[in-house]
């Protein structure tokens, strides 16, 4: 058995079998916990939800203007695959308002993030991909998708209830 220390923090135990195969012990697997302030997670959730609340409201108020943007997009065919663009704009506006509100208050955060991601991906592919003048909004949407993935991957629903701040 061989004990190695990496960076004074991680210890790796290697065992050489008779067949000269090296096996990593369980101590090498992801056992370290990352400490994050629960308030920062709450703040991230609130800020990301604001984007969807404003976008959902704009989808419902400016249906015609949003439909024109879809018709001018290089990949407008993606929207047409799902149906009438005006109906999709209204439906996505309602979904963004409802899921964005749930995300804001922290109720069923993982499911709200999944729903918001399901709405954001086709919007991003339709309106922002393939157009040089929408590179900024494209990367903004990529960052938002990363934020949503954070809440999908990590269990954050009860974070503020279990940790006193």
Overview of the structural elements:
There is one protein chain. The N terminus is likely disordered. The protein folds into two domains: 32 residues, no CATH class; 120 residues. Helix 4 packs antiparallel against helix 5. It has seven helices and three strands; from the N terminus they run E-E-E-H-H-H-H-H-H-H. The two termini are 44 Å apart. The radius of gyration is 22 Å and the shape is elongated. 64% of the residues lie in helices and 9% in strands. With 165 residues, the protein is mainly alpha-helical. The longest helix has 24 residues. The chain has a three-stranded antiparallel beta sheet with strand order 1-2-3, with no helix packed on it.
Mean pLDDT level: 79
Sequence of strands across the biggest β-sheet: 1-2-3
Number of domains: 2
Order of helices and strands: EEEHHHHHHH
First-to-last CA distance: 44 Å
Largest sheet, strands/sense/barrel: 3 strands, antiparallel
Task: Provide a count of the helices.
Answer: 7
- Taken from the alpha-carbon principal axes, the silhouette is elongated
Estimated structural class: mainly alpha
Uncertain runs? 1-28
Rg, nearest Å: 22 Å
Strand content: 5-15%
What proportion of the residues is helical, as a percent range? Answer: 55-70%
Give the strand tally: 3
Structure in a nutshell:
With 165 residues, the protein is mainly α. The protein has 7 helices and 3 strands; from the N terminus they run βββααααααα.
């Amino acid at each position: 058995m061989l004990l190695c220390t990496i960076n004074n923090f991680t210890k790796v135990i290697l065992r050489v079998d008779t067949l000269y195969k090296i096996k990593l012990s369980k101590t090498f697997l992801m056992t370290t916990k990352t400490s994050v302030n629960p308030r920062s997670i709450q703040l991230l959730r609130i800020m990301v939800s604001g984007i969807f609340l404003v976008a959902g409201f704009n989808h419902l108020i400016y249906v015609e203007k949003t439909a024109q943007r879809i018709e001018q997009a290089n990949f407008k065919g993606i929207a047409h695959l799902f149906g009438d663009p005006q109906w999709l704009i209204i439906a996505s506006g309602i979904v963004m308002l409802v899921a964005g509100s749930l995300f804001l208050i922290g109720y069923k955060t993982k499911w709200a993030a999944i729903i918001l991601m399901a709405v954001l991906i086709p919007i991003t592919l339709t309106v922002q991909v393939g157009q040089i003048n929408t590179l900024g909004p494209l990367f903004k949407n990529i960052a938002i998708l990363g934020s949503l993935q954070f809440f999908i991957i990590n269990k954050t629903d009860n974070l503020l209830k279990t940790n006193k701040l």
